[in-house]
């Protein structure tokens, strides 16, 4: 750092200022001695130069009278001083506080002793000629400052020559003094700047230290937050491990459920194999049967086929249901694996679907409860009324049969009174044939009544199943929709799945009811067939009655003929009767053969009917058992599905908690990373600032070193100047002594 101005002490040493009190005391004593000597010389030299009249001397005295010595230049008294070469070379003298004291002392004296005059030769009085050397004598260090603007005459060997050199020395000394003061000011400014720099650097260092302390505290906080984040990571990992274990357990449960499902499939396969065997047996039986049987057997066979087809369709439906359940299980597994939730629009649509489905369920329930049950009840009441009517008809037929038997017995008893026993036997055969026909007709009516009872039992069972299904539906609806709280609201996928299952079950029940209705229709058809058969039997009974009437009429005719022909010969009657008897025997044989054939056919039909009934009952029991097993399995699967849904919901909640914890931990880690990045940035900025400050301090140190070097040089220059001043003072004192000696000699010479 360089300050504008001239430096006169380049290459000098450090400034050394003499501040010792002993030197000051010595200087003050010297000044007092000089004052005392000057006063003595003043008293001695009063009126000492009255005899000097010479113009040259007067001019020299006048020229010297206008010259005032500068106190600060002790070498101004001699003109031929060899030290004037130093002033010509303009070497800077030193300056100390002793000189300041001398200057202060001389300033107090110069106004009293100094006489300033612009015209040197205007004063011709002897006082003026003698006062100038006395003034010079009073001033121990030279003339006053009044001679700065006076032209000096340089005469060799005279005081004016000395005065010229003193003037130059005075000018040089003034310049040196000004430059020294400027240099002192520069030094003071530099010292102030150094102090300011030191204070500023100290303040910056303290601020940087404070920032370092805060940075260290922030770093410690960041480390603590990192440790906490690590602990949280460890805990989250532990939670994740536990969740994975739970997932593995759930996977094991799913594997077990799949195994159970495979077992159910195997059971279904075995059941299907059994059904196929039964179908093959039925096919074999159907192949072995004759195709020329009655319409009833064909109708029974067709009904059996229809039942088998229905059972096969039911099995296919159950298989489809199982496949649907498997698909639903897969869908549920996929839903468990899914992470995203459905949006609000989907929820609103699902709520609307739930409302629609609930309304459909209510409508279906109302229909099932009101319409179909009423129809079934009406149908059952009709069937019961028809059964009662059939029973009444059977009773009437029985009464009619008893009446006919009584009539026949009466007729037989009446004919027994006839002549021979053969016609009695024929009549008994006819009565037995008629009785057997009546008994066969009664057995058929009993079969129809028995079938009506079975239909009624089946209808009651169907009603019971319907009521059970209805109660189950109501319970499930109450469980899934308690107090209809979820109507019009957005539901979860699990509730929708349960509602779908309920709808599927209700649809299945509706299908079952439809199947039952179909069975009822089939039974109605069978009842119509039986009614037709009853009508045919009634027609046959009427025909038999008509035959009996004809026989009675024939008997009456025969009696009449017998009465009319009582007078005929017995031979002709016997011949006619034998012919007629032979014809009747042939007819009886034919009728017996036909009767035997009919009985065989009827026995075969009864056996087939019993077999079909046994197969139907076994098949119905199997179907009921299969339905019960399926219902149990469905209930178990539904409970298992509910448990799995609950576990899935818990897993979802746990997964969401883990995700939230993971997100929080990731956010904390990101915050910690950002804080660490900020800390690192602050550290880098602090290090860069430290580097800059270190560079600035190095530069300032270099500048301070330069300034200290300059100050040392200036001190050395000041020491040299002080030495030079001391030497000049010594020379000045020596010259002053010589001058005083010469002056004394001169005064003595002039006095003498």
Automatic annotation (TrEMBL):
Residues folding into a coiled coil are: 177-281, 308-393, 459-533, 574-738
Instruction: Kindly provide the name given to this protein in its UniProt entry.
Output: Centrosomal protein of 152 kDa
The opening ranks of the lineage are:
Eukaryota, Metazoa, Ecdysozoa, Arthropoda, Hexapoda
* Compositional bias of kind Polar residues: 68-84
Q: Per the record, where are the segments of Basic and acidic residues compositional bias?
A: 33-47, 100-110
The encoding gene: cep152
Q: Sorted alphabetically, which keywords does the UniProt record give?
A: Coiled coil
The answer to whether keyword Coiled coil applies is yes
Location of the region described as Disordered in the Swiss-Prot/TrEMBL record: 1-130
User: Where do Acidic residues bias regions lie?
Assistant: 48-58
Superkingdom in the source lineage: Eukaryota
């Amino acid at each position: 750092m360089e300050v504008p101005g001239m430096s006169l002490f380049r290459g000098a040493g450090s400034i050394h200022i003499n501040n010792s009190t002993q030197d000051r005391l010595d200087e003050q004593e010297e000044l007092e001695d000089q004052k005392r000597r000057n006063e003595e010389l003043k008293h001695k030299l009063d009126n000492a130069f009255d005899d000097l009249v010479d113009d040259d001397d007067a001019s020299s005295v006048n020229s010297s009278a206008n010259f005032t010595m500068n106190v600060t230049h002790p070498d101004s008294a001699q003109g031929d001083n060899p030290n004037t070469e130093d002033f010509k070379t303009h070497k800077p003298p030193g300056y100390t506080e002793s000189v300041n004291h001398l200057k202060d002392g001389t300033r107090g004296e110069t106004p009293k002793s100094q006489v300033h005059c612009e015209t040197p030769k205007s004063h011709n009085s002897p006082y003026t000629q003698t006062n100038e050397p006395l003034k010079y004598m009073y001033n121990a260090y030279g003339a006053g400052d009044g001679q700065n603007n006076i032209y000096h005459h340089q005469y060799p060997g005279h005081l004016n020559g000395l005065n010229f050199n003193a003037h130059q020395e005075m000018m040089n000394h003034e310049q040196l003094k000004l430059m020294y003061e400027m240099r002192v000011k520069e030094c003071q400014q530099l010292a102030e700047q150094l102090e300011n720099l030191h204070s500023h650097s100290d303040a910056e260092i303290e601020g940087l230290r404070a920032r370092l302390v805060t940075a260290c505290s922030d770093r410690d906080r960041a480390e603590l937050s990192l440790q906490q984040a690590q602990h949280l990571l460890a805990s989250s990992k532990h939670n994740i491990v536990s969740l994975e274990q739970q997932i593995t357990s759930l996977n094991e449960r799913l594997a077990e459920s799949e195994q159970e499902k495979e077992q159910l499939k195997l059971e279904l396969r075995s059941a299907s194999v059994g059904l196929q065997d039964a179908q093959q047996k039925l096919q074999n039986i159907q192949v072995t049967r004759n195709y020329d049987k009655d319409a009833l057997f064909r109708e029974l066979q067709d009904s059996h086929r229809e039942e088998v087809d229905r059972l096969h369709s039911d099995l296919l439906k159950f298989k489809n249901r199982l496949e649907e359940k498997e698909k639903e299980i897969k869908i549920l597994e996929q839903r468990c694996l899914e992470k995203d939730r459905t949006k609000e629009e989907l929820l609103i649509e699902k709520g609307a679907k739930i409302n629609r489905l609930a309304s459909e369920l209510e409508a279906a329930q109302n229909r099932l409860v009101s319409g179909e049950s009423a129809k079934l009840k009406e149908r059952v009441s009709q069937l019961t009324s028809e059964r009662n009517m059939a029973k009444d008809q059977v009773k009437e037929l029985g009464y009619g049969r008893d009446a006919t038997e009584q009539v026949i017995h009466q007729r037989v008893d009446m004919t027994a009174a006839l002549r021979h026993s053969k016609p009695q036997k024929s009549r008994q055969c006819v009565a037995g044939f008629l009785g057997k026909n009546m008994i066969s007709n009664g057995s058929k009516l009993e079969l129809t009544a028995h079938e009506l009872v079975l239909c009624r039992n089946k209808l009651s069972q169907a009603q019971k199943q319907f009521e059970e299904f209805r109660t189950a539906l109501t319970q499930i609806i109450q469980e899934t929709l308690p107090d209809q709280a979820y109507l019009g609201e957005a539901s979860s996928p699990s509730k929708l799945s349960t509602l779908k299952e309920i709808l599927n079950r209700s649809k299945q029940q509706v299908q079952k009811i439809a199947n039952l209705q179909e069975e009822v229709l089939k039974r109605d058809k069978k009842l119509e067939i039986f009614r037709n058969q009853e009508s045919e039997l009634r027609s046959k009974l009427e025909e038999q009655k008509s035959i009996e009437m004809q026989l009675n009429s024939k008997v009456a005719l025969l009696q009449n003929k017998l009465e009319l022909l009582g007078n005929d010969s017995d031979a002709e009657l016997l011949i006619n009767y034998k012919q007629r008897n032979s014809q009747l025997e042939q007819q009886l044989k034919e009728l017996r053969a036909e009767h035997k054939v009919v009985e065989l056919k009827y026995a075969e039909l009864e056996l087939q009917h019993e077999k079909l009934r046994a197969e139907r009952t076994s098949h119905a029991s199997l179907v009921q058992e299969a339905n019960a097993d399926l219902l149990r399995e469905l209930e178990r699967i539904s409970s298992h599905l509910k448990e799995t849904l609950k576990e899935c919901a818990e897993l979802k909640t746990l997964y969401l908690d883990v995700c939230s914890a993971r997100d929080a931990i990731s956010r904390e880690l990101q915050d910690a990373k950002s804080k660490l990045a900020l800390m690192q940035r602050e550290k880098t900025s602090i290090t860069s600032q430290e580097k800059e400050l270190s560079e600035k301090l190095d530069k300032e140190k270099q500048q301070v070193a330069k300034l200290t070097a300059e100050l040392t040089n200036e001190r050395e220059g000041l020491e040299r100047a002080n030495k030079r001043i001391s030497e000049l003072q010594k020379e000045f004192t020596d010259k002053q002594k010589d001058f005083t000696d010469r002056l004394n000699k001169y005064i003595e010479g002039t006095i003498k």
